[in-house]
Amino acid sequence: MDKVRIGVIGIGGMGSSHAKRIAEGQIPRCELAAVCDLDPSRFSAFPGVKAYEDSAELIRSGDVDAVIVATPHYGHTTIGIDALEQGLHVLVEKPISVHKADAERLIAAHTDEKQVFAAMFNQRTDPHYRKLKALIESGDLGKIQRTNWIITTWFRTESYYRSGGWRATWEGEGGGVLLNQCPHNLDLFQWLCGMPTSVRALGAIGKYHDIEVEDDITALLEYENGATGVFVTTTGEAPGTNRLEIIGDQGRVVCEGGKLSFTRNETPTSEYCANSPERFGKPEVWNCDIPVKGNGEQHLGILKNYVAAILDGVPLVAPAAEGIRSVELANAMLYAAMTGTTVQLPMDSAVFEKHLKTLIAESTFVKKTDDATDTSLKNSF
Q1: 263: Cβ–Cβ under 8 A, 6 or more apart, which residues?
Q2: Are 171 and 377 in contact, with CB atoms under 8 Å apart?
Q3: SS3 of residue 90 by DSSP
Q4: Which residues contact 85 (CB under 8 A, 6 or more apart)?
Q5: Which residues lie closer than 8 Å to 358 by C-beta, 6 or more apart?
Q6: How many CA atoms lie within 13 A of 199 on its CB side?
Q7: Which one of 132, 193, 284, 313 is most buried, by most CB atoms within 10 A?
Q8: Do residues 3 and 31 lie in contact, with contact meaning Cβ atoms separated by under 8 Å?
Q9: Distances from the Cα of 349 to the Cαs of 48, 191, 327, 377, in angstroms?
């Protein structure tokens, strides 16, 4: 094979962007061979490209070697499994699944190592996070003691939530800010700092919007080495903050406002604490602004990597199997907040799946329309 025939399943907002990049030749050695959507009016944007209203038909058509799954969230699992079982390469949008149990099912369907199975975690191409990861892995930051990410720049209006019938409902989307806006942040958080061993959280359903899912979360994480972390997010705050701070034994690194700053201790904190005769002293430091240019190739970079992995066997930037971690973090934060409990990780996937099915079954929420509003589920938890 010298060219990958790609089919895009789901050509709404994000899917259409992927399809256009491919159709315009922005990704070498591939072609847009087919598109699929439940709304056939969208096909006109891709004249001359084979179009399907049924994903199963596209997957079995013989027209494609690989697919990109960009449907609403629940379809990532079912369509992804179908494509993998039919021998296609698969790139799935974030989150890879709505909940951990579905993510386990999706990953289990990937049984052929020759099949490329990737996830659209485009933020992993950003040089800010790549340099931060290198700094951590080199040991220059020392043992991580505390992490803190305030990511509240996800402000959304009521109009946004009304723009799709599936948005902001348990049945249609499976969650709110954690599952829709934050999969990238949660993926980066675990990619950089690892997975915690327990999660506690506070939050609210529809605190700022007429929705039945969470739009405000503050989570406390505990790690095996004794480190702690805080993760704060909402879609109801403007102008919002995006500040990632990681403190290690040898200093502090902050990613904020497009800058990556490292304040390095001349003496590790633990060593200074144990040996200094100064009762109120602290280690001398030097400050360094780590040079970073741009934000990387983002979606385009992941698509290029996907094709190169298929044709050349290059390592994936974001293997789909790693996507279960951000799903688990989102599930754990939501479950901890809604139940008032501490969730131990690894999380029991069956427990959360049952919880979500109960939320769906017992939902009485009616999405706001011109003449109907039901705000009975606007409760803190």
Answers
A1: 251, 252, 253, 254, 285, 286, 287, 288
A2: no
A3: strand
A4: 109
A5: none
A6: 26
A7: 132
A8: yes
A9: 43, 21, 10, 25
AA letter at 124: R
pLDDT tens, 112-125? 999 999 999 999 99
> Residue 194 has what DSSP assignment?
-
DSSP per position, 72-106: STHHHHHHHHHHHHTT-EEEEPSSS-SSHHHHHHH
Dig out the tokens for 38 from the structure: 């439940």
The β-bridge partners of 199 are 221, 343
Span 245-262, average pLDDT: 97
Cα separation, 88 vs 107, whole angstroms: 14
* 245 close to 254: Cβ distance less than 8 angstroms: yes
> CA 97 from chain center: how many Å?
10
Domains of the chain plus CATH, in order, are 4-122+298-317 (3.40.50.720), 124-295+326-362 (3.30.360.10)
Check: CB of residue 23 under 8 Å from CB of residue 49: yes
Which among 123, 56, 70 is positioned nearest to 322, based on CA atoms? Answer: 123
Q: How far is CA 164 from the centre of its chain?
A: 20
List, in order, residues 6 or more apart from 300 with CB less than 8 Å away.
21, 26, 27
